[in-house]
Amino acid sequence: MTETRPNSTALPRATLTRWLCVAVFLLLSGKSTALEIAGHGRSASWTQIGATFTGSGSEKPGSVLSFSEDGSRLLVGSIPVPAYVDVYEWQSGSSAWTLLGARISPPHGSIVSACLSGDGKVVAIGDFNGGDFNGAGLEVWWTVAVYHYASGSWQRVGSDIVGSSSEGYYAEVSLSSDGKVLAIGNNNQTLSSYDSSDHNATMTGRVRIYQWPASDLTASGVAWTQMGEPIEAWSTSSGFYPWFGPYSQKVYADAGKLSGDGKRVALFKTNGWAQKGYVYEWKSSSWSIVGDSIDLEGTASISYDGNVVAGSYGNVYKWSSGAWSSIRTEYFGYYTSLSRDGTRVAYADSWNEGVVLVHQWDSEAESWGRMLDIRGESASDQVGAMVSLSGDGSRVAVFSDGAKHTRVFEVGTTCDTSVAPPNASVGNCPAKLASGSSCQPTCNSGYSATRPTTCVSGYLKNATCAAGCEVSSAPVNGGKGDCGNLLAKSKSCTPTCNDGYVRKGNKKTSCDSAGVLSAAECRKRYSWGDAKFCPKYENVVFCWSVKKKEDCLAARPKRDCKWSNSSSGGSEYCYHDDKEFDEMWDESYYHDFAADKCGSVDPWTRDAL
User: Fold this and answer.
1) Choices 1.10.150, 1.10.10, 2.10.70, 2.30.30: CATH for 471-524
2) Residue 86, strand partner residues
3) Maximal C-alpha separation, the chain
4) Which long-range contacts (CB under 8 A, 24 or more apart) does 474-477 make?
5) Same CATH fold, 471-524 and 16-412?
6) Can you name the residues that pair with 488 across neighbouring β-strands?
7) Does 28 have pLDDT greater than 60?
8) b/e map of 222-231 (b: 16 or more CB within 10 Å)?
9) How many whole angstroms separate alpha carbon 589 and alpha carbon 586?
10) Is pLDDT larger for residue 502 or for residue 603?
11) How far apart are CA 451 and CA 465, in angstroms?
């Protein structure tokens, strides 16, 4: 499911802005150890599992990475030469990654991209064929091959999907969770000659989505079927880069990231500098755009349900209430990888020593919290040249281009709670808090905890002690209820009242934004037999039952009735001109006394005047 593409050297894509931002960030940051990395902000530590994936000669194992959803299987590919894909499995209780089946070699000896399905059973490889260059241009075409793991080996699924020479060599692949939906994004290049003086280089692109129509991936006589029309580029351009020669219009060059259910696809178009992202959804027999365009450049990753999309440089969007809303992280990282539910994201960039960051979404604080910070082991390590996060977010694989190796880290099962949050002491929190557990720090005098400290899948959600109002005592004739000793600003709590008493006006105890306390009061609970409810003027029980003005005025001395004189032509009526009566009505509610009577009079069946 999680897929990231290799670093293509055929076309320039990195901008000066990207490298400057990363360089500044690295100058301001520290360094971490190699095998065990302390969790950022007292989150769980991350420990390397299994040996480092290393190659020999020009091999670069991990220049293509893709995790399964549960993190038990990992695709480790190498480009450009030699080009291959290995799939490894981590079995429960083991201490090593085991090669699953034999090594997969691309049909034509090259790899542009590769992807592992969420269930870890299907591999898609995009490569290119050809390479015949003549005066008319460079003749190449893309090819996509799909493999399914069955009976101990990787077996081809249907025939290869082959592009035409007019579409160029690039094929970005992505798979649904079950491997039965395949997206292929490509750009095609038209060069009238290889001479850099030619200013007529153009590039357009498209995304095609295919479906395997059979329930069995090993079924014979079945072919990949295209779902709807290709999602085409709608503009092209041409020009000339001073340093690189002909202007390259890259449209959908890094496109076709499928959601786990295969119903949404995230993609973008770019002219080499400016980029915009789009999400499409499969409806009936066609792909329809979802919402407006978003800032999605460089690389893309999408959650299982397609409701969270992440791009380079911290751009993250969530689909809510019929629109995309930005929930961006700190501005950093070219490569990105989302967890299945979209609440955890990995960012990476390989400038200089390189860095990999993992962030966790805190829904209560509505912000991202950093939980992992991996640095290169040397100035030329270039860690972060590729990254893949498992679907459950528990494991992250990182490739170091300079060191030519890949390491896999797993989040620990406890969070460090030995240090208290600001304005608090540790309270009942242990030094290590197990994932899924909570504890309560003790806030300093004048501060109140807005939530407990919780360890969520290795990420520490610390309690916050905020200034508030002191709630020193319970109301007269009542108890404190859920009110503690301190109430945070702009919050309320509910005290209890003793038997026969209710909260006056049904109001709660509250602390306003300025820190001023408004305490609830407990007052006697009235019934129909009390003076405020039983008739005192003939049979007038409720003023709003009175239909005539003269009857309303006659009842006023005993029932506090008042006649409404409309000045705008509206209807006139009789009402209670008594705040205390209104408060008691709010406190008591009529259904509390539905069976009560005023002496021998039933107020609910009495005829109104």
Assistant:
1) 2.10.70
2) 76
3) 110
4) 475/503, 475/509, 475/519, 475/520, 475/521, 475/522, 476/521, 476/522, 477/501, 477/522, 477/523
5) no
6) 468
7) no
8) eebeebbebb
9) 6
10) 502
11) 8
Per-residue pLDDT at 138? 57
Q: How many CB atoms lie within 10 A of CB 601?
A: 14
607 DSSP assignment:
P
Closest CA to 175 of 222, 113, 230, 90: 113
Write out pLDDT tens, residues 415-451.
Answer: 999 999 999 999 999 999 999 999 999 988 878 777 8
- Could you read off the pLDDT of 138-159 as tens digits, one per residue? 567 889 999 999 999 999 999 9
Which among 261, 139, 138, 272 has a CA at the least distance from the CA of 205? 272
Mean pLDDT of 78-94: 90
Range among 104-113, 152-161, 360-369 rated most confident: 152-161
What pLDDT, on a 0 to 100 scale, did the predictor assign at position 209?
A: 94
Query: Residue 312 gets which letter from DSSP?
Result: G
- If pLDDT is split at 50, 70 and 90, which confidence band does 70 have? very high
The verdict on pTM exceeding 0.90 is no
Angle value at C-alpha 453, between 451 and 455, nearest 5 degrees: 130
* Residue 402 vs residues 60, 358, 377, 380: alpha-carbon distances, Å: 9, 21, 10, 6
Give yes or no for a contact between 167 and 126, defined as CB atoms under 8 angstroms apart.
no
Q: Are 208 and 171 in contact (CB under 8 A)?
A: no
For residue 362, which phi and psi values (nearest 5 degrees)? -100, 105
Per the CB < 8 A criterion, the answer to whether 391 and 404 are in contact is no
Residue 281 above 90 pLDDT? yes
- What pLDDT does 513 receive? 85
Taking alpha carbons only, the member of 342, 331, 174, 187 closest to residue 266 is 174
Query: Is the dihedral angle over the CA atoms 161, 165, 167, 170 positive or is it negative?
Result: positive
Of the candidate ranges 10-19, 368-377, 404-413, the one whose mean pLDDT is the lowest: 10-19
Q: Is 3.30.2350.10 the CATH number for 16-412? A: no
Lookup result for tokens 């557990």:
437
* Per-domain residue ranges of the chain: 16-412, 424-466, 471-524, 527-609
Give the H or E element holding residue 559: helix 549-559
Which one, of 498, 500, 497, 499, lies nearest residue 509 by Cα?
Answer: 497
Q: Cα separation of 208 and 430, whole Å? A: 53
Q: Per-residue pLDDT averaged across 274-284, rounded?
A: 85
Show the CA angle centred on residue 117, arms to residues 435 and 152, nearest 5°. 105
Secondary-structure breakdown of the chain: helix, strand, coil percentages, each rounded to the nearest 5: 10, 40, 50
Q: How confident is the model at residue 127 (pLDDT cuts 50, 70, 90)?
A: confident
**341 contacts 370 by C-beta, under 8 angstroms:** no
Per-residue model confidence (pLDDT) at position 389: 96
98 pLDDT band, cuts 50/70/90, is very high
